[in-house]
Design a protein that fits this description.
The protein has 94 residues and is mainly α. It is 70% helix and 0% strand. Helix 2 runs antiparallel to helix 3. The longest helix has 27 residues.
Length: 94
């Protein structure tokens, strides 16, 4: 369910950038999520963008737009995770 919601968010980002929001983009995003889970980079940073860059032409999408979508998704995830640091460092506040 969470992956579906994340794919929906990526499609909304694509629409916001006036890019084609397609099933191919959602599939590329799901493949990039697998790449981000592999512990090669710190937090998956760079791995997701690399998958978007390589896979975009195979589903007839512009690589620069898909990388921008991946970066925006990463930034939004980072910003929404920042408040959790407060409770991570001060668990007694829960």
């Amino acid at each position: 369910m969470i992956q579906g919601l994340q794919a929906g968010a990526v499609l909304c980002l694509a629409r916001a950038l006036s890019a084609e929001a397609s099933a191919g983009l959602a599939l590329v995003f799901l493949a990039s999520s697998l790449a981000a889970a592999v512990p090669v980079t710190m937090g998956g940073m760079g791995a997701r963008e690399l998958v978007f860059f390589w896979a975009a032409p195979h589903v007839c999408l512009d690589s620069t737009v898909t990388v921008a979508i991946a970066l925006l998704f990463f930034i939004i995830t980072l910003i929404s995770s920042l408040p959790g640091m407060y409770f991570h460092w001060l668990p007694q506040r829960l």
